[in-house]
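pasting input
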Amino acid sequence: NELRIAVVGAGMMGADHIKRITHRIAGARVSAVVEPDADRAAAAAANAPGALVFASVEDAIAADALDAVLIAVPGQFHAPVLRPALDAGLPILCEKPLTQDSASSWEVLELEQKLDKPHIQVGFMRRFDAEYQELRQLVESGASGDLMMVRAVHRNPSVPDSYTNDMLITDSVVHEFDVVPWLAGSPVASVEVKFPRRNSHAPERLREPILVIMELENGVLVDVEMNVSVGFGYQVATEAVFEQGVARIGQPSGMQRWERGNHIVKEHETFVTRFASAYDAQIQRWVDAVRRGDLVDGPNAWDGYLVALSCEAGVKAMHGGGIVPVTAPERPAFYA
Ligand code: ISE
């Protein structure tokens, strides 16, 4: 009983997931590629032997061409795919963010709660990165004392033309809004945004880099350097400051060269390679969970909703809102 997955969206992430499922994931195959752009669809489907191509998820559902859905269209198009997939009672892996604002995320939660149990896993893949997992274990063990501060850097060489200023928060810092509370075992209490000097190499529409300061409910203070025009490579690194120690993850670990008076370490250039094994682990565990009937093994739609609240606070803070509190309603028992 191989799981038949429909991949919705054949852009960079969708195409990467199609190859991953075809070549590296056990127990599943891509049975449908849902993509209105015919050229893109054909190029992606070439990596998925036997997959059918559909222009909409509704068409794929009507043709009974799938057992589960992987949503990899841009964030603002998630809700229109989530609704029919939930109506059909399908297990879903939805790339981040869940939806583009907390009101639409809440509507998704309401729809999901009509089902017998959570059906949506959200693609916050950093939780599946081996070093992040090791750091979380260190926090939980207390071996270095209590965690006091988290210093995070999130650097992209460049961003596509479709990347807007608010996406610094909603498309990029969105990852820290999920992974840091998960690491520290405490939700975000407030968000503030500061502006260093602007990078003159940034596209004109972007006011970046930005420094995002989050305070967690347990008092841990977090600073995130969000910087998307660095040119030299892709870096996601974290330093965790404990009472009796410091831990660092995400340091460059590629080939080292000594040459003409320099020591060079190869750096990643894209998240596709930096997080390749995290994506592999995420999809494999999701596939295994769906085949067992558990449907979710990782961050769920409630986590996605909490992140949407933090993103809203972050966008408000970035637009001059000062220190913006994040307040969440009580978690429904459905997500316990
Ligand atoms: C992109 O959408 C991602 O999810 C990457 O992980 C992140 O580093 C990048 O800034 C986003 O635009």
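fyi The two ends are 29 Å apart (CA to CA).
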